[in-house]
Design brief:
The protein has helices at residues 2-21, 35-38, 57-68, 80-93, 109-121, 149-176, 211-236, 259-268, 276-279, 281-288, 315-331, and strands at residues 48-52, 72-77, 98-103, 128-131, 180-185, 240-246, 299-301, 304-306. The protein has 336 residues and is of the alpha/beta class. α5 packs parallel to α6. The chain is globular. This is Short-chain dehydrogenase TIC 32, chloroplastic-like.
Length: 336
């Protein structure tokens, strides 16, 4: 249960008072704010948004609210049938919603490449990329490319997807003059990782695998990826921001590998948990709110910028992860 203590320590460090009370921070929003509230009055017409994992949970609520605000939302999902059901549900609630579905399995490098090609073939602009999808606390297994599943899905898939779509985002920002935004969903769990933060030489090593530390490692990678990409884009002078967010503790399908444990934990710490509309608030705020124009390389929780762990602020670790991730993508060999 060390990971539970680590989570609680991180919650206390980043502001348990504001989480429990719903106290609104400098942004004007807090832990009790919902995705609809933080985007109220914001016009997103003309913007194209990709939401990975947009067929359920936080991704679905994020996609719904951004479509409600007028954005053209592309739901990128492994389960296309569920994504189509999600789209139909959105249309029932708002018949003017503009939503499309494309298949994406982040655990497969080939699927990521195919998705990027399919999206580009639509000849749409791309203003906002929300890297939301993920898996959590999985038993050890390798992806079809030979990469540990949590690292493959939560980080490598999104790393490659972002790289493949970056030129499209740059073109869109340049032609339209509208700032592009990339949002990586991380977690407070990034603080509970392995001894060295990222175990580069043991990513696929079953004997040292710990499901919760592996999850924390992948969530740390999400922040480091966002920070390093932000640094590179700033050097280029590109009109695109990159930030990471902690959505909060929410009971979703992401926890399917630890349902009983999570229900017990929620029962003991009910005052720390959010519902799905509250959980999607920080993502929608960072993706759309005009007050964050030009803000990049930050980590947000409860719709306010907070300081992540020391590992997450390590610039050299971020650079090392970037090179390592590029190498993994290049050297991955699909299994038969």
């Amino acid at each position: 249960m060390l990971w539970v203590l680590k989570y609680f320590f991180e919650i206390v460090r980043t502001g348990i008072f504001s989480l429990v009370t719903g106290w609104r921070g400098p942004s004007g929003f807090g832990s009790a704010s919902t995705a609809e509230e933080v985007t109220q009055g914001i016009e997103a017409s003309g913007l194209t948004v990709i939401v990975t994992g947009g067929a359920s949970g936080l991704g679905l609520e994020t996609a719904r609210v951004l479509a409600l605000r007028g954005a053209h939302v592309i739901i990128a999902a492994r389960n296309v049938e569920s994504a189509i059901d999600a789209k139909n549900s959105m249309l029932e609630q708002c018949n003017t919603a503009n939503v499309d579905v494309l298949k994406l399995d982040l655990c497969s490098i080939q699927s990521v490449r195919t998705f990027a090609t399919s999206f580009k073939d639509l000849n749409l602009p791309l203003n906002i990329l929300i890297n939301n999808a993920g898996v959590m606390f999985c038993p050890f297994q390798l992806s079809r490319d030979g990469i540990e599943v949590q690292f493959a899905t939560n980080h490598i898939g999104h790393f490659l997807l972002t790289e493949l779509l970056l030129d499209k985002m740059k073109d869109t920002a340049r032609v339209t003059g509208v700032e592009g935004r990339i949002v990586n969903l991380s977690s407070i769990a990034h603080a509970h990782t392995y001894k060295n933060g990222i175990e580069f030489d043991k990513i696929n090593y079953q004997r040292s695998y710990a499901d919760k530390r592996a999850y924390g490692q992948s969530k740390l990678a999400n922040i480091l990826h966002a920070n390093e990409l932000s640094r590179r884009l700033k050097e280029e002078g590109t009109n695109i921001t990159v930030n990471s967010v902690h959505p909060g503790l929410i009971m979703t399908d992401l926890m399917r590998h630890s349902v009983i444990l999570m229900k017990i934990l929620k029962g003991l710490t009910y005052f720390l948990w959010k519902n799905v509309p509250q959980g999607a608030a920080t993502t929608c705020y960072v993706a759309l709110h005009p007050s964050l124009k030009g803000v990049s390389g930050k980590y947000f929780s409860d719709c306010n910028a907070v300081k992540p762990s020391a590992f997450a602020r390590d610039v050299n670790l971020g650079k090392q992860l970037w090179d390592f991730s590029s190498m993994m993508v290049e050297e991955a060999v699909p299994s038969l």
